[in-house]
Amino acid sequence: MTTSRAVLAAREALASIDLSSYDAEQSKLMDERCILVDEQDNAIGAMDKKTCHLMENINKGLLHRAFSAFVFRPSDGKLLLQQRATEKITFPDMWTNTCCSHPLDDFAEEKVEKEHLGVRVAASRKLEHELGIPQSQTPVDQFQYLTRIHYLAPSDGVWGEHEVDYIVFFTGDVTVNPNVNEIRDHKYVSKEELQAMFNDPANSFTPWFKLIARDFLFGWWDELFKRKAADGKVFAKSLLPLVDDRVVKM
């Protein structure tokens, strides 16, 4: 039986870089433990975020689990975007979806794979940490999982991403109070406004957001409007029939 590159990389992972020149709060977060997976998204262990995001290890195949959350306003279907803070170690100052992070090995509930519970719990936790959205406003059972993508993207010569990324939608009226160490800016956009942002060379976007937008986002967004409730509001759970539980290689 052939051992996958991700499994081999997990055995050989290195974390030898000094973080003292980076933002102290962001450096501390690098101690969190991500869930390592193989190419079929089977959990194979855990490793600190620093190790997981070093290109030295990514180039050997090290792969971890992540999520990308998309929060839409029910009344007009606009999507909440964030611009990542300058302090971020990976992909600073780039526009992206509402929240992108990781379920952690540090929390037992975030390792639960049944019905994608772990990533939904992690999404609620990180929406509060990054955007200050109270967890009471993002009940875990109201996140709609849609699919998983496997992608690799360098950030610079040192850092990058190599993830199996779970895509989840949420619709709700939320209170945003951004953590300035995480987020430089945020705004709600329509589909047309987002397309205009993509066409403006002054804007830069995270690679996973560009991939999701290219292949999935706009189609799902159209479906949200097609499936409006009787009160005219969009509802993430209406997309349940569109779920594709494959790992889609990008």
Q: State the end-to-end CA separation.
A: 25 Å
> With helices defined by DSSP (H or I, 4 residues minimum), what is the helix count?
7
* Mean of all residue-level pLDDT scores: 92
Percent in helix: 25-40%
Main sheet record? 5 strands, mixed
Task: Give, in order, the helices and strands.
Answer: HHEEHHEEEEHEEEHHE
Question: Short summary of the structure?
Answer:
With 250 residues, the protein is of the alpha+beta class. 26% of the residues lie in helices and 26% in strands.
What characteristics describe this protein?
250 residues, alpha+beta, 7 helices, 26% strand
Please characterize this protein's 3D structure.
With 250 residues, the protein is of the alpha+beta class. Helices cover 26% and strands 26% of the residues. It has seven helices and ten strands. It has helices spanning 5-12, 24-29, 49-52, 55-58, 117-131, 191-199, 207-226; strands spanning 33-37, 43-48, 64-72, 79-84, 95-96, 99-101, 144-154, 160-171, 183-189, 247-249. It has a five-stranded mixed beta sheet with strand order 6-3-8-7-10, with helices on both faces. A three-stranded antiparallel beta sheet has the order 5-4-9. The chain starts with a helix and ends with a strand. The mean pLDDT is 92.
Describe the secondary structure blueprint for this structure.
Blueprint: H1 5-12, H2 24-29, E1 33-37, E2 43-48, H3 49-52, H4 55-58, E3 64-72, E4 79-84, E5 95-96, E6 99-101, H5 117-131, E7 144-154, E8 160-171, E9 183-189, H6 191-199, H7 207-226, E10 247-249
Parallel strand pairs: 3-8, 7-10
Antiparallel strand pairs: 1-2, 3-6, 4-5, 4-9, 7-8
